[in-house]
Design brief:
The strands form three sheets. This protein has a four-stranded antiparallel sheet with strand order 1-2-4-3. The chain has a three-stranded antiparallel sheet with strand order 5-7-6. The protein starts with a strand and ends with a helix. It is elongated, with a radius of gyration of 23 Å. Helix 9 crosses helix 10. Strand 1 and strand 2 form a beta hairpin. The protein folds into three domains: 66 residues, Multidrug-efflux Transporter Regulator, Chain: A, Domain 2, CATH 1.10.1660; 60 residues; 61 residues, Multidrug-efflux Transporter Regulator, Chain: A, Domain 2. The protein is of the alpha+beta class.
C-alpha cells in the first residue's frame, strides 16, 4: 500500500501487482483519459505518477460495470462469495488439469472473469467429492486425488507423472485437454498398492 501526504494512492506498479493489469493497458487508459474519464494523478511517488486510490477505484468499478456482463466474477469476488482465500483460489486454478476447474469466461488485460453459475456448480461438486470420496478400488482418480491418497504434495505427484519412480502405476486412462495438456486417471487400487509398496520399502 502506498501513501502520499497521508492519502492512499496507487502507482502503476501498485495496480499491476494488486489488480493484475498490464502496464501497456494502464498507459493506454491514461492516454485516453479525455474520453474515458480516467482520474488525473495527484502527485508522484519517486519518479512514478500516483493516483488517489478511492478516485481510481470508483472510476475502475464504473468502467468494469459497463464492460463486464452480469454473472461474471473475478477471483476476488469468487473468494468473497465462497469464503476462500486468494491463495486457495490460485491453488485450485493451478490444479485445473486434474480437478476440472472451469476456464475463464472473459479476460480484460490480465484480469480473469469466471461465469458465476458455472464456477459455483463446479465448486459444489468438487467440495462434495472431497468431503465424501468414493473408496471403491476400481474407481479412477485424478493425479491430485492420487497425491491426497498417498499424502504427497501436489508438486511431487506432478513430477511422478512425468518422471515416474519405480512402481508408479501406469494411468488407466488419459484424456487429452486443450493446449497439449493431458489429464491422467489412475485406478484407486493401483495407487493404494503403490502406497503400500512405499511403506514396505
Amino acid at each position: 500500500m502506498t501513501f502520499l501526504d497521508g492519502r492512499r494512492v496507487y502507482t502503476r506498479a501498485d495496480l499491476m501487482a494488486e489488480r493484475g493489469i498490464g502496464r501497456s493497458t494502464l498507459e493506454k487508459w491514461y492516454r485516453e483519459r479525455a474520453d474515458n474519464g480516467h482520474p488525473e494523478p495527484v502527485g508522484t511517488v519517486g519518479s512514478q505518477k500516483a493516483w488517489d486510490a478511492d478516485a481510481w477505484d470508483a472510476w475502475y468499478a464504473a468502467r468494469e460495470a459497463e464492460d463486464i456482463p452480469p454473472g461474471l466474477l473475478t477471483r476476488d469476488e469468487l473468494g468473497a462469495k465462497h469464503g476462500l482465500s486468494r491463495h486457495r483460489l490460485k491453488q485450485l486454478w493451478s490444479e485445473r488439469v486434474d480437478n476440472g476447474h472451469p476456464a475463464p469466461a472473459r479476460q480484460v488485460g490480465k484480469a480473469l472473469y469466471w461465469d458465476d453459475a458455472e464456477w459455483s456448480a463446479w465448486y459444489s461438486a468438487y467440495e462434495a467429492k472431497a468431503a465424501a470420496p468414493d473408496e471403491r478400488p476400481d474407481d479412477l482418480v485424478t493425479l491430485a486425488e492420487a497425491a491426497r491418497i498417498l499424502g504427497l504434495a501436489q508438486s511431487s505427484a506432478t513430477v511422478y507423472a512425468k518422471r515416474p519412480p519405480a512402481g508408479w502405476p501406469t494411468p488407466a486412462h488419459e484424456e487429452p485437454l486443450g493446449g497439449g495438456r493431458v489429464r491422467r486417471l489412475y485406478r484407486r487400487a493401483d495407487i493404494l498398492a503403490y502406497g503400500k509398496s512405499r511403506q514396505a520399502n
